[in-house]
Amino acid sequence: VTDRVRVGVIGTGSLGTRHARTVAERVPKAALVAVTDERRDVAEVAATLSPETVHVPGHPTLLSDPAIDAVVITTPNDTHVEMICAAARAGKHIFCEKPIALDLAGANAALAAVSEAGVKLQVGFQRRFDGAYRAARDKLRSGKLGEIELVVATTRDPSPPPAVYFERCGSFFADTSIHDYDVLRFLTGLEVAEVHAVAATFAVEDIGTLATLDTAVTTIRLENGALATITNSRRSNYGYDVRIEVAGSKGKVAVGEHQQSRFETLTDRGATRDFVGSYWDLFEQAYVAEIQHFVDCVANDTEPEATGHDALRALEIAVLAERSYTEGRPVAASKLR
Amino acid sequence: VTDRVRVGVIGTGSLGTRHARTVAERVPKAALVAVTDERRDVAEVAATLSPETVHVPGHPTLLSDPAIDAVVITTPNDTHVEMICAAARAGKHIFCEKPIALDLAGANAALAAVSEAGVKLQVGFQRRFDGAYRAARDKLRSGKLGEIELVVATTRDPSPPPAVYFERCGSFFADTSIHDYDVLRFLTGLEVAEVHAVAATFAVEDIGTLATLDTAVTTIRLENGALATITNSRRSNYGYDVRIEVAGSKGKVAVGEHQQSRFETLTDRGATRDFVGSYWDLFEQAYVAEIQHFVDCVANDTEPEATGHDALRALEIAVLAERSYTEGRPVAASKLR
Amino acid sequence: VTDRVRVGVIGTGSLGTRHARTVAERVPKAALVAVTDERRDVAEVAATLSPETVHVPGHPTLLSDPAIDAVVITTPNDTHVEMICAAARAGKHIFCEKPIALDLAGANAALAAVSEAGVKLQVGFQRRFDGAYRAARDKLRSGKLGEIELVVATTRDPSPPPAVYFERCGSFFADTSIHDYDVLRFLTGLEVAEVHAVAATFAVEDIGTLATLDTAVTTIRLENGALATITNSRRSNYGYDVRIEVAGSKGKVAVGEHQQSRFETLTDRGATRDFVGSYWDLFEQAYVAEIQHFVDCVANDTEPEATGHDALRALEIAVLAERSYTEGRPVAASKLR
Amino acid sequence: VTDRVRVGVIGTGSLGTRHARTVAERVPKAALVAVTDERRDVAEVAATLSPETVHVPGHPTLLSDPAIDAVVITTPNDTHVEMICAAARAGKHIFCEKPIALDLAGANAALAAVSEAGVKLQVGFQRRFDGAYRAARDKLRSGKLGEIELVVATTRDPSPPPAVYFERCGSFFADTSIHDYDVLRFLTGLEVAEVHAVAATFAVEDIGTLATLDTAVTTIRLENGALATITNSRRSNYGYDVRIEVAGSKGKVAVGEHQQSRFETLTDRGATRDFVGSYWDLFEQAYVAEIQHFVDCVANDTEPEATGHDALRALEIAVLAERSYTEGRPVAASKLR
Fold first, then answer.
1. What is the pTM of this model?
2. How many CA atoms lie within 13 A of B140 on its CB side?
3. For every one of its 337 residues, what pLDDT tens digit does chain C have, with 9 covering 90 and above?
4. What is the mean pLDDT of residues D218-227?
5. How far is CA B101 from CA A330, B116, B181, in A?
6. Would you state the pLDDT for residue B214?
């Protein structure tokens, strides 16, 4: 494996195992050499993905292996800062799932460690690698749709995660809405000026934190005066529903639709289609592409898209949403800086 | 009602009553002055559509009324020739439902009577008045899609009519497929060179005539060498399904889709839409427009679209399909002339 | 016309003429007997819609005619209170376009006049009469989709009205968003608890009032805790875009889609459909049905749907949005009562 | 690579290189060990797909390598029989692109060689491995849609291949329509009773063989009396258009639609979507799955789906279509046996 990028995966839950499989099977110039997880049995399963892969007991061991070039961090959200700092100190290039931190102090600490170590950091905003989103961005940047004026976006999971998830995921805004916050920046190329958020808990047991919010509307004023509204839910019932439309002064682009299946059944009870059941079904191409991009950047020593800066900016919006929700009023982005 | 076109409706079944209502309520320059039907009770109901309308006992009485300018004929198919001839002799302008006859001899007799009397004849090919079909025709005629090459069309009823209907409707080709045959000519502007038809009876009791065929495929070679295939069914289950696509050398147009409803329900069982339940739901605009057009032509002494010539041409295709089905081989259009 | 409902139309601009035509041509039990408009020439054109119709010089003359049973008010928004009060005092039943007033004092005055006179009042919330909206309401009321949790709605006009319109239309919230506010109440059966609105002016010249806002997001908390977000624009470019989705705990309904046409063109440049160009194209069925309903209510002495109470409630939401926009913070509905 | 299935690819044109890449990168239990092609430079490029891959000069050399377990044959259609026979004699398991032969004698010879050698043969009917087609098959087999009655299918390439392709591809029916013939059998589980075909040449230069037909309609009567019509074109302009609908006595399934993109642009010129540009864009999942399936069958010594029998049956339908086209009349399947 001498000329391939040697990758270790820290945290092999559902998405971590997906990323590990991508490294092992979909990125010829990478090798999946090590995996680790708090849950030993889970990591041992992931270690079978490739004959080159070993299970190691804990991330310190993994990070101390000089043969490893880069890590994928898919541990619980509340560990991301610690993991990024440790990986940076160990000189590993880093792909970390969103959010990179639960608060701005943590995010800044993580970015500082990355900067000091001179390693690369890519954050798991996979939509930036999805063909439809990239086509939408290109159309908007072409100027053919004029100045950005109005954005409507949504991300809704089919059903909520188990209760244990909420202990470590951070606020609903930082955990889920953050995808839309990032796409808003990605598609418009604009920063946020003001945020207003309302939210509620309908589908999960409320544990008294912002984590168990499960339904939210974030209204955003962008720096150019354009308006955006983002709705999120942890329980759509009808599938993984991710859509966005961006209207400019001359027209709009829309990405996503309720019905994704090419297979339809028509009887006397109506015309029925399947929807997308999971994040993987909708974004497989993008998830694979983001890992391929990360490996390319490491191999070629180039800067990744979906940077630490992007991670920080999206988290800032989440923090503004948290404050707005808590205080019951809009909060200006200038309050943060 | 002196300056309005005075219309009588002969045959007030489902579609006849629709047309009568259109005359009474949607055509200000027309008056519905008389209705008649073999079934007296049915006609009496239709006579309540407007205070100006009277029920008369039988079409001879209706036709002998000098105050009537024009008639709408929606009697059973096997009476159309007789009705057209009688109406023409009485000097009435004629709107007649398709087919104008069950065979070519009848059609020619009807056209001769119309010609001799100098009255107008419009046939009930309502799709020619539908906005989407007209847009498709205009696009094709613009030349932007190049030369016509391939046509795929379908008409499927949700469920078959009652058994009594088959005694008088003529062949399935003349009764149902004829709509597609006419639209084929309307959209392409081309005549037919050869016809091949296969058919079967699945949904209704076979009475040993071509009337109880209920599933058919007609393959047509047009005069320019382009190919067309038309499928028909008397029982789709899932709604009234009418679609056509016409491909040219530079692109294609398509009219129609399975799902017509703007209302959608999404649950964990899928995304479900309603479809169009009946001919009226799909073509209301066109049915109203064709009657308005007919009245306009009578009032302004202009020639109607959807002429007797169109009626004859479409019936010729149906007759070719009947022969092809019966003989089990393609039949050239030149055999008819 | 003795047994028909005799209707006068006050204000024969674009929509007023549509309503007048509906009365004249689509409601057999009504007669269009009089029209009036500030612009004499406009009213004279409308007076040609039916031989029974006369033009009268000004609404006082029209209202003083004892032969008129009911009026349709489609004058500029800032005259609605005056018109309703005058019509009520004259004992006429009233169909009035939305909004019934530009402020709550006006609305209350109008309702008081109606109540005192014992006449009927229906407000022009035509979406309540649209088949898709009614199907959505029925589905939501059936309980099959569970408790209401999240609503996303939009209304966007293709292009802004002329500058003169803004002098009399009231705020963008009262003029345009009010349709969504009403549909929110209609579909959910819930009242509003809190409103937050942001807005901007992109497409029209700002005259320093809330009238020339042309892009807005209204975020609403409903009385049961459910959340809603409504986006509005006076310039979509791509057509008249009206959509809503209402998500419950078990699934959702959606009404509307970008592409309404059944006609599609496919070339090497993509697959292209038309969209709906105007309010009338999208809601013709509903506009006709609401007038038919109004006439039925007058004829049968029953209470109309889309009542004065509904008009007041929707205006209250608009007033809350105005305050929120002006004050830059959410406003509780309890502040109004 | 001792425990992996060692695969050689014979013919590394567009699709052959795709398959080679799939073996190298998407099938962990397979190794791409050798490639060959008449065009040495083309094969040398493919040999770079994996460090384990070598280029060998000609298929005899490749087949004589005892370290190779299985081959993928993607050479021109007119060589398939020779390649299958040689591979079988060499004891290699075989994945061969459709059609396995250009005539029935060839197909029977190929199957006999395979049978005698006791090797596995899978044919490249990739749609059998597409999720939407499998869902459609399962729905039809469930009986919920009743007895099969009517099938409408199409396959249209965006643009024709270069002229040289026609020298070796066999008839348009055997080269293109055969995909639809196979899917017809796959979805319905029924055999063909009678075939009628019409065809034309519009888009390519006619070289006087059945190869340069480029537009065709095949009408088929199935053994249960059901009817099918299949349209094919070598030049849609608007993308790779593959659709099928199968109607039963209780309802229908449909797979495919014109517009596949999740990305849409809406301006004042309409709502525009991209379509699928190539076979790979539409069927990537299926192409990968068929190769994975083949490797699994070799590794586990199980029988592949998409068998030599299926290849023969589909070719029989193509031969019936050729005869029908040539003779200008329907041909019964019984004529072949």
1. 0.94
2. 30
3. 458 999 999 999 999 999 999 999 999 899 999 999 999 999 999 999 999 999 999 999 999 999 999 999 999 999 999 999 999 999 999 999 999 999 999 999 999 999 999 999 999 999 999 999 999 999 999 999 999 999 999 999 999 999 999 999 999 999 999 999 999 999 999 999 999 999 999 999 998 899 999 999 999 999 999 999 999 999 999 889 999 999 999 999 999 876 666 778 888 888 887 777 789 988 999 999 999 999 999 999 999 999 999 999 999 999 999 999 999 999 999 998 7
4. 98
5. 73, 18, 15
6. 98
With CB atoms and an 8 Å threshold, state whether B215 touches D227. yes
> Interior CA angle at C96 toward C92 and C98, to 5°?
160
For residue B258, the chain A residues in CB contact (below 8 A) are 264, 266, 271
Element (H or E) spanning C222, and its range? strand C215-222
Cross-chain residue pair A132–D268, CB shorter than 8 Å: no
Structure tokens at B171: 């062949």
A 220-259 residues inside an 8 A Cβ radius of C: 221, 225-229, 231, 233, 235-238, 247, 249-252, 254, 258
Q: Is the dihedral of CA A26, A113, A322, C214 positive or negative?
A: negative
Q: What is the C-alpha R_g of chain D?
A: 20
Instruction: Name which of C50, C131, C268 is nearest B251 (Cβ-Cβ).
Output: C268
Q: Which two tokens stand for residue B40?
A: 């007296």
Q: Which residues in chain D touch residue A133, judged by CB atoms under 8 angstroms apart?
A: 263
Q: Is the CB of residue B135 less than 8 Å from the CB of residue C263?
A: yes
Distance CA D280, CA D284 (A): 5
Report which DSSP code applies to A176.
Answer: I
Report pLDDT digits (tens) over D68-102. Answer: 999 999 999 999 999 999 999 999 999 999 999 99
Cross-chain Cβ contact A202/C330 below 8 Å: no
Hey, what are B317's tokens? 């295709």
CA distance A31 to A22: 10
CB contact under 8 A, D131 and A255: no
d(CA C92, CA C121): 9
- Strands (E) across D183-334 are located at 192-200, 215-222, 227-233, 241-248, 251-255, 263-267, 270-273, 331-332
Q: Do C252 and A238 touch (CB under 8 A)?
A: yes
pLDDT digits (tens, 9 = 90+) for D305-330: 999 999 999 999 999 999 999 999 99
Round to whole Å and give the CA distance between B27 and B23. 5
CA distance A108 to A312: 8
Count of all residues that appear for chain D in the document: 337
Residue that the structure tokens 């898919």 belong to: A74
Tell me the β-bridge partners of A229.
A152, A219
Which residue does chain D place closest to B332, by CA atoms? D328
Q: Does D268 touch chain C (CB under 8 A)?
A: yes
Residue B197 parent element (H or E): strand B192-200
Q: Which of B252, B260, B267 sits opposite C266 (nearest CB)?
A: B252
DSSP code at position B329: S
